[in-house]
Structure formats: structure tokens, C-alpha cells
Records
---
Amino acid sequence: MKIKYDTPIVEMQGDEMTRIIWDGIKDILLSPYVELNTDYYDLGLENREKTHDKVTVSAAEAIKKHGVGVKCATITPNAQRMSEYNLSEMWLSPNGTIRAVLDGTVFRAPIMVKGITPYIPTWTKPITIARHAYGDIYKNSEILLGADKAECSLCVKYADGRTETKPIAAVEGGGVLQGVHNKDASIRSFARSCFNYSLDTAQDVRFGAKDTISKIYDRRFKDIFEEVFETEYKARFDKAGISYEYSLIDDSVARVIRSNGGFIWALKNYDGDVMSDMVATAYGSLAMMTSVLVSPDGKYEYEAAHGTVTRHYYRHLKGERTSTNPVATIFAWTGALDRRGILDGNTALSEFAKKLEKACIRTIEGGFMTGDLVPLFKRDGIAARSVNTDEFLLAVKNMLETDRD
Ligand code: NAP
Ligand code: MG
């Protein structure tokens, strides 16, 4: 008998190779076992063009309504895609649009398997990165100063007519100037998303910034995190036996390197941009990195961290059977099914999700994997065998049906 659930999961189909894999995962690993009940949105670029990107906003609204979504990777248009898909506009990144509607934070964590050791071998547990995705240098204003003398200052005009000015520097002989900002509301949402996700996954939160140097800007982040934690979360953290800790960003980096992993690392926008690439690389493969968008009021959207794997798609179009890794996309589905199960008190659904994740991990640990993992895999007595995507999905299905514990 198939597992059933009542509230739909928002399903967002995507582009290129991941679009193909999406259907394979549903056909082989999900539909035979679960009566999938989805609120479906096609975020493929052709449909975004056809709907003038209204479909992306509708999908985001649906996540607000149902609480759980799963998204396939999608193309973010650039100049080359404009002509390839004959677009009338350079539509925004769907992830950016959905993030803005949900006011959410993205958490990225690696899927770990025996045989693939991180470059930092003491990282025996995953490090989950939470990147604040608003403001700072990503919404800055910059000026290239001419060679003449320049007096640079910050100037604020308040709505009540007051003004406030602070000198920055007197510059001679050319230079550069930059203005950045952030918003209390955004920082507060970021803090709440981090603390919620920390409670859900029973992991500590570490936050790093530079409040010794940036005594107002970074200090604001530190203070808001502390206030939100103390007033809204401390009691629940104590009960769950987890902790929140602030430290200076450089100290935080040093301690992360020495750690065993197993915590959430909350970072400002730029730090998160840089550190997420470092951490992802250190764990081995982008194709094994999961990503979940969590809103401050507890809505979840799951996806793989990688893109649409365009190079493989062009080979697929020529008739080649590619060895594209479906694991992060499978985990996006299992994350969503598990979350649905938790929210609805449907243990059968959550247990299925966990079992499918274990089947993926055991398949790889047994030496059966897509080509991207083969050079990374080293396990005594087990040779890595490269298979194509369909063969891998069937091997996982076989593991799911035969694995007994
Ligand atoms: P990508 O799709 O992540 O692929 C980059 C390369 O990484 C691939 O060519 C492949 O290397 C390897 N790779 C990534 N995922 C893999 C997997 N599952 N299995 C095996 N190898 C994998 O990044 P991209 O080529 O820069 O971007 C392609 C499109 O994706 C772009 O249009 C971009 O806008 C979009 N994108 C979307 C998202 C999203 O929706 N979240 C995120 C990033 C990018 P080899 O070719 O060497 O095998
Ligand atoms: Mg980056």
C-alpha cells in the first residue's frame, strides 16, 4: 500500500539535465511508494517566459500556504540565454524571487558518505552554512574618486527632516568610496530562521562578525541576534540541550577549521558567500550539497545546491546517457517529504524519507556511484564503479527494497 498524505507539497519543476532527472526520481523512487500529492508549478524557463514569470511568484505564494516546497534547479537567464530561449525579458533568478517572497535564509549542508573524506578529515559531521542574503556589499553604492582632493562623508536624511552627517575621510590623489546598509527587520528574520532551523535539526548555532572594528554596523548584527535569542529562543534551546554562541569572525573561522562539524554556521552576506564555497569544496562535491530555504515563520523550500548541469544536458540532447549525480535532488525530495511528515504527524512518510536517504548513502558506500564521485572515493576493499544516472537510480531502488535494517 502506498503512503498517503493530505496537505500538498509545492512541486517546482526546473530546467535542463535536472528537469530530466526530476522525472526519473519521481518515476523510480517516489511514485511506486508514495501517493504524491503536489501543488505543481513549472518553473522551466519556457514557462516562466510564457507566464511573464508570474508562475514563480505563484509558487512562492503556494509555499507560504502549504508550508513545504521542493524545487528543481532552474536557469537564471543571462545574455546568452536570452537568445537561446528567445526571451522577452531577462527574468530574475527564481531563487531570488522565492527568497524575497518568503523572507527566508538558505541553509546548505553536505551529504556525507563513508569513502568520501573531506579535505579536512576531522570534519566528521556536516557543517551547515546559513548565509544572510540581504544588503551589505550586495546592495552597495560605489564612487570612483577623481584625482582631485575629496572630502567623503556619510549623509542621512530622515523622514522628519532631520539630517545626520559623519566624515569618512579626506582623500587625495584618487581612491574609492563605498556605502552599504542593512535593515533591522532583515537581520531579525535571519536570526529567527537560524534559531528555528537549529531547533529543528538539534544543532548549535555559531555566528561570527567583526564588532570590534565595526562598532555600529556589525555590532548591530551581534545585538539583534542576542536579543532575539534571549527573548524568544533561550528557553527552548536549554530544553533541547543546544547552544548559541557569538564570536569574532576570524576566531570563528579558526575554530571551525579545528572542529568536527555538526553545527550551523551563521554568516553575514559576504562571509557566507566566501565560506560556503570553501566549505562545499572541502566536503568534496557540489553534487552532494543540499540546500533549504527557511522562512522566519517556519516555511521550508528544499533543493539541490547545484545548477541545471548544462554541460551534461547538451550531451543528453545528443543521445548520450550521462552520469549525472541525482543525490542532492533526491535529498531535496526526502527533505520535503520528511518535513511534511513532521508537520502532519505522518510518521510513515518521514520514515520512508529517511529510508530513501539511507538507501542512497548505502548504494554509494557499496561502491556504486555516478562519475563525479569516483575520483573522490577511497574505501578499503571496495572499488568505485561509475554508472549512469538511470543505473544509479535503479541501484538505489534495489537497495531501498532489499535493505533490511
Ligand atoms: P552547475 O549546473 O552546478 O554545473 C557545474 C558543473 O559542476 C557541471 O558541469 C558538472 O561538472 C558539475 N556538476 C554539478 N552538479 C552535478 C551533478 N549533479 N552531477 C554531476 N556533476 C555535477 O553550474 P553551471 O553550469 O554554472 O550552471 C548551469 C545553470 O544552472 C545556469 O543556467 C545557472 O543559472 C543555473 N544554476 C541554478 C541554480 C539553482 O537553481 N539553484 C544554482 C546554480 C546554477 P562536469 O561538467 O565537469 O561534469
Ligand atoms: Mg560564492
---
Amino acid sequence: MVTIKSKQEIEKMREACRVAAIAQKAIEEKIKPGISTWELDKIAENVMRQNGAIPAEKGYPSGVKGVPAFPGSICASVNDEVIHGIPSKKVILKEGDIISIDLVALKNGFNGDCARTYIVGNTDKENKRLIDVTKEAFFEGIKYAKKGNRLGDISHSIGQYIEKNGFSVVKEFQGHGIGRSMHEDPGIPNYGKAGRGIKLEPGMTLAIEPMVIYGKSGILELEDGWTIISEDGSNAAHYENTILITENEPEILTIL
Ligand code: MG
């Protein structure tokens, strides 16, 4: 069921999203060669707790028998890791790496979700283009995030933009509605047909998140049951914001 948030609920969404954005900022400032993804995890968790939120990803159930709940406060996915990388003291960032950080702040019963791909030090122009196109795909998509349009208009626009630039859309994972639950209806694929899907209405809060592979499409799951990597070993990028559908232009809640 797609939930339409009341004015009061929207205020709570705004606050959870603000904390998520603050946590991203804190991480961005600390990313450099030599830091571990475990240290980034602690930074994010501390910032969220200092701001009255908890990291909603910590303890998130896998839904798969034998796979423990997610142990981290953030997902930290380096280079060919697409999403759901587990923070670790053993994963030390190196000059030229790229790292996707996906985090969710839960405050006053509501969730704010955002992801960014960062460059460690400096990197090559292929990685830079991958990161830029992924971010641009989000902004292409939300041009259609307007009352009366259909969900497929967003999906179509994102997918087209990624493919036009020669990269591959991750089709096995998608964006989602968000609110009291981290994942609500509707699912929001990063490809699809314009004019299809539900009609967008003011009060919907949606996490829109292009996930892009530099090379061929196709993913694999590591033995930890969480980490998703590109099948061809090429790098991947992720860009996500929680947005609000309004009477006019969409509002991006996870950008400060
Ligand atoms: Mg996310």
C-alpha cells in the first residue's frame, strides 16, 4: 500500500532526512586513503545518535535463513561492490577507490534514506564519469516526479539516461516508498516504460536510487549473504535521495 503522508508526518520525514544528510556530510569529510569502512560506520552512527536518530540499517533482517541481520550502521560498497557492503576494519580505503555509502536515519518513527558515491583522493576519469552519470540519472528521473505523472515516467527517464551514456542499469534492485518503514510501496525500478505504474500524488515520499555498473549488467552476491558485486568486476555507483511529491516541484529531503 502506498502511504500518503500527513502534514505532521511530512515534518517528521523532513527531520529524519535532515539527519541522514548530516551523516553523509560527516562521512564525506572523513573519506581519505587509509581510513577503514568500520571507522566510517562509527562516524555515521555517532552523528545519527547525536542528532536523536538511530541507524536503521543496523540489525535489518536479511530475510534469508542462515544469513544474520545486517551488522553495520551504513552500507559501504567499494569499487565493484554495488550495494550492501558490510563495514569492516579490514577494508581500508586506497587512493583512487570509489565508495558508495548508503545510510538510513530513523527518528521519531520515520526513516530518511540517501546514498552517495565518493572518490578516495583522486581517481581516473572513467570513475568520475560513472559517478556523475549516476547522480545525473537521479536528477533526470525527478524531473518527472510531479503530481499526475506516473511512476514509470521516473523509471523510464533514469534508465534511458544511464543507457544513453553507455553504462548498465542494475535491474535486480530498486528504489522504494519510505516512511514509517524503510521500504514501503511502491517499488521504483531504474528502468521501465513511461506512462505506466501508479499516479504520483502529493504526500508520497519516495527513495529514488539509480544503481549503475560501468560495464555489463549482471550482479553476484558474496558469501556473506549481503554484499552485491558487479558480475564483470567493473566498478559501480549509487546515488539516492528521499523526495516528497508536492503540488508543484518535488522536494529533495536528504540534501541539506
Ligand atoms: Mg538507501
